[in-house]
Design goal:
single chain; 56 residues; mainly alpha; two-stranded antiparallel sheet; 2 strands
Amino acid sequence: MNYRRLLYFLAVVEAGTITSAAATLHVAQLGLSRQLKTLERELRMTLFSRAATGWC
């Protein structure tokens, strides 16, 4: 686990959407999404529910 992934996680929680968090962090949505998936694998748990319309 690294600090950046935790920062990304907190940014998504605070922003409410991955789109807003990516804009705030000045990173691509795809990169942010991949970092969150990696964090979920490392923790062996689902942190966000995903829906057809995006993250929940």
